[in-house]
Amino acid sequence: MEIKENIPLNNKTWFKTGGAAEYYAEPVSTDDYKSALDFAHEKNCEVFLLGCGANVLISDDGFNGLVIKPSNTNCEIIFADNDEDILVRAGAGTEIQNFINFCLSSNLTGFEEFSGIPGTIGGAVFINIHYFEFLLSDFLISARVINKSTGEINEVSREWFDFGYDKSKLHDGNWILFDAVFKLKKVDDIKTAFAKGRSVEIIRHRENRYPTERTCGSFFQNFSPDEINFEINGKKQIHIAYYLDKLGIKGELSIGGAHVSRKHANMIENDGTATSADILNLAKKMQELVKGKYGIVPKLECQLIGF
Ligand SMILES: Cc1cc2nc3c(=O)[nH]c(=O)nc-3n(C[C@H](O)[C@H](O)[C@H](O)COP(=O)(O)OP(=O)(O)OC[C@H]3O[C@@H](n4cnc5c(N)ncnc54)[C@H](O)[C@@H]3O)c2cc1C
Fold first, then answer.
1. What is the reported pTM?
2. How far is residue 153's CA from residue 37's CA, in Å, rounded to a whole number?
3. Can you give the pLDDT at residue 234?
4. Which residues contact 45 (CB under 8 A, 6 or more apart)?
5. Where is the domain boundary, 160, 178, 209?
6. What is the residue range of 112's domain?
7. Pocket of ligand 1 contains residue 279 by CB under 6 Å
């Protein structure tokens, strides 16, 4: 596996902004990962894992260190007796939609609830992707993770990840997800056809509801109920988009080439001319406005890299 130098990252992220990676590798096998980590230790440089770049903002100055883009994209059924529950292993670099398509083509359902979410299995496990009431952690059974300091590969169970909302153990920065095993439901052809239809419908719904390019999806996290007091019908309003919407900034507030999406108040879009600095400055302005009106500062869901 070749380790390349000075590789532009703007075309590898959804925001389409940011500078270059000092070093860049696309490992497939465990040996590739090991040699990438050995290289980083030799150079004494930082390591950053990049999936599809659907939830990151990379500094205009780029990343000083080694960017590893997992490129093991294999999916395989690893346990199939005649039971309804089937285990499927997916490599960290597998795109979420490709995994869903693989499952549906084998009459395996459940994961199609995440249809249309951009990203890889690595990025999805990192943030514990969610859509309405569905969480990735409901499906994950086990995984193989690589220790960044030692290169050692460990088999771990769901509990190890300590999953929460937008949270997993991978946030401590010490681990690389190599692959993960999910439990899916085996169904007949009629139910599979229904699940395929649902997948198409979810994608259509998402395309109407969210911007589809040059964004990272939700920029800020929802609040936890203990952070806020405001209630609607006796229920705490935890959705950050509600508060941002009330500020009247949707489609209106902009800095440089970055603006708050017309479709969704918690999404920032690059009009094609934005820098990462524009996007970050706009996000800071949004935080100030929420703090000024509601007294709370929204936390970032988007990961800032190289700032
Ligand atoms: C239009 C749009 C809509 C979206 N809608 C949703 C939604 O409905 N629900 C939702 O939950 N998210 C949503 N997102 C956010 C995004 O899709 C998810 O966070 C996705 O999981 C990002 O995956 P990625 O591969 O692009 O990760 P990246 O953005 O490349 O990386 C994100 C983080 O994961 C880490 N990471 C990546 N791979 C690994 C690995 N193998 N091991 C360890 N760490 C790793 C990175 O280091 C980084 O910190 C949306 C984004 C966009 C652009």
1. 0.96
2. 12
3. 83
4. 22, 23, 64, 65, 66
5. 209
6. 75-209
7. no
pLDDT above 80: residue 145: yes
Q: What pLDDT sits at residue 80?
A: 73
Q: Say what the pLDDT of residue 83 is.
A: 72
What would the two tokens of residue 182 be?
Answer: 């999910």
Q: Do 81 and 176 sit in the same domain of this protein?
A: yes
Last residue of a domain, one of 209, 235, 260: 209
Atom 43 of ligand 1: nearest residue by CA position: 176
Which two tokens mark 112?
């199609």
Alpha helices in the chain (DSSP H): 30-43, 96-105, 121-127, 189-209, 240-246, 276-294
274 found inside a domain: yes
Q: Is 289 exposed, middle or buried (0-12, 13-18, 19+ CB in 10 A)?
A: middle
Q: Is the CB of 53 under 6 A from ligand 1?
A: yes
- Report the C-alpha gap between 174 and 184 in whole angstroms: 29
Task: Give the position, in ligand 1's atom list, of the atom nearest the Cα of 128.
Answer: 11
Residue 104, domain member (yes or no): yes
